[in-house]
Amino acid sequence: MDNPKPIFFDSHMHTPLCKHAEGHPVEYMERGIEQGLAGIIITCHSPMPNQFSHRVRMAPEQFKEYLNLVEDADHEAPENFEVRLGLESDFFPGMEEWLTELHDSADFDYILGSVHWHIPEYLDAFWRGDPDSFRRQYFEHLAESAETGLFDSLAHPDLIKNASPDDWNFEDIQPHIEDALDRIARTGVAMEINTSGLNKAFPEMNPGPQMLSLMAKRDIPVVIGSDSHTPERVGENFPLALDLLEEAGYDYVSVFRRRKRSDIPISLAKNSITATC
User: Which residues make Cβ contacts (< 8 Å) with residue 8, sequence separation at least 6?
Assistant: First the structure.
């Protein structure tokens, strides 16, 4: 029997311009082909003004270089494989105007919004020594990020559980998560299941099964991303992620092209991915 035609994408990965990733986008493309994918979306960390979080992202003057890197990988890709242009942009209150201009400056396929609680600027602004209050603030910002209309999807949406993993208790924070999800659902913005969560301090995909089920009940679309910082991790644990989505109540998984969402039956996505994932 012939192998199923690849139809699925890895929608989250980086380049060395962020200063904490390795490998040219061409290498990520080649790994995507090995993993039975139809394409990848490069989503390196967005440039920000005034050296905001500059140690973990490209500088504004490197933005053109980023566009060229992605374009080079797309040109190198075989005819049946796509390399799409994306960006992972930090949501931080007060940065909305900068991000609006940035997102309008290129023909993006996908904009992934992130609340990175661990960057120094976020900690300086919002950490007050109370983990519970900090978690509540995180989910407030997650909802606010969707409401800005700046993003197509929200990355690793329970990343905050890694802030203090030993005392993370989903039930304690669940009312605040549900409030945030209600607001996100009203916007139509998608959310990500990020497979790299298995490698973090709280070793569970982001989000975990309980939050995924709450998202499914609200019909919030879901995109899968590996958050690869090395080519070897493209498509990592995608079959497991698809299983978790089904268990949570999802029938479809989403991908983006030219900022428009399309939905793929999970059963077809599973069949199209090789056993090497």
Answer: 37, 38, 224, 238, 253, 255, 264, 269, 272, 273
Domain ranges of the chain: 9-272
Cα gap 192→157, rounded to integer Å: 7
pLDDT tens sequence across 220-272: 999 999 999 999 999 999 999 999 999 999 999 999 999 999 999 999 999 99
Angstrom distances, CA of residue 63 to CA of 13, 70, 131, 182: 16, 11, 35, 35
Looking at the chain, the number of H-run helices and the number of E-run strands are 9, 9
Q: Tokens 């019909």 appear where?
A: 219
Which strands, in side-by-side order, build the sheet including 252-257? Answer: 9-10, 39-42, 82-90, 110-114, 153-154, 190-194, 222-225, 252-257, 260-265
Distance separating alpha carbons of residues 32 and 233, to the nearest angstrom: 9
- CA 41, CA 29: separation in Å to the nearest integer? 9
Architecture of domain 9-272 in this structure:
Alpha-Beta Barrel (3.20)
Helices 238-248 & 209-217 angle (0-180, nearest 10): 50
Give the pTM.
0.96
Which element (helix H / strand E) includes 191? strand 190-194
What DSSP letter does each residue of 148-160 carry, written as one string?
TT--SEESSTTGG
- Extract the tokens encoding 121: 């600027």
CA distance 45 to 57: 5
Structure tokens at 202: 């709280």
Side-chain-facing half-sphere of 150: CA atoms under 13 Å: 27
